[in-house]
Design a protein that fits this description.
Elements lengths: L1 E4 L9 H13 L7 H4 L7 H8 L5 H11 L9 H7 L3 E5 L4 H7 L2 H4 L4 E3 L12 H10 L6 E5 L2 H9 L3 E5 L13 E3 L10
Parallel strand pairs: 1-2, 1-4, 2-3, 4-5, 5-6
Length: about 200
């Protein structure tokens, strides 16, 4: 068995900072967004998010700069211990760009993963299954051998379309948004490892 994790909002408590960075970036173009505009579509590529918010794709660059300058990185409680103790193949699948991930997350943590798929690695991002399919291909595992941990509707859709068992964690959205998952838990400490 293998476990594949979304990153932002699943392993790391970063979504508030990402939202505020987007809010500031789109504000340059006179656009206002609220949390309810962002959290349900989290996991999309930054290009698609810019399109969705009705701003030029250059806004994604502004957002990245804002995030790097104004973020306070922290893991959710229990994440580091969980990952450290996980004696299975493990991967991260994130829409975040490779450079952004490695610039803002401790190397020591990222190096614990067998595979990391970022938004640079695929043509299509979530809700397409492509990122999860690529992670499985790189790990050499089949969908029935994988558990995905996600926090967003698009991520859950992607995991299920890839044929994986999906656990949703209520870190950024309530249960009413996460019904497509096979299992829903309140927070990371409630995740049980499937054999």
């Amino acid at each position: 068995m293998a476990m594949i994790f979304d990153f932002d909002g699943t392993l790391a408590d970063t979504m508030g900072d990402h939202f505020r960075a987007w809010q500031k970036a789109v504000g340059y173009y006179g656009v206002e967004i609220k949390e309810e505009d962002y959290y349900p579509v989290e996991g999309m590529s930054v290009r698609d998010l810019a399109d969705l918010f009705g701003v030029p794709r250059d806004a994604a660059v502004k957002k990245d700069v804002e995030y790097r300058m104004n973020h306070e990185f922290k893991f959710y409680e229990g994440v580091e211990e969980f990952v450290e103790g996980l004696k299975k193949k493990k991967a991260i699948v994130t829409a975040r760009k490779h450079a952004s991930l490695w610039a803002t997350v401790p190397y020591k943590f990222l190096e614990k993963f067998d595979v990391i798929v970022t938004g640079d690695d695929t043509v299509r991002c979530k809700p397409s299954p492509e990122p999860y399919e690529l992670a499985m291909e790189r790990m050499g595992v089949k969908p029935e051998e994988c558990t995905v941990v996600e926090n967003s509707p698009f991520g859950i859709t992607a995991a299920k379309a890839a044929g994986c068992y999906c656990i949703a964690v209520c870190t950024t959205l309530g249960r009413e948004w996460l019904g497509e998952a096979d299992e829903i838990v309140e927070d990371f400490k409630d995740i049980k490892v499937r054999e």
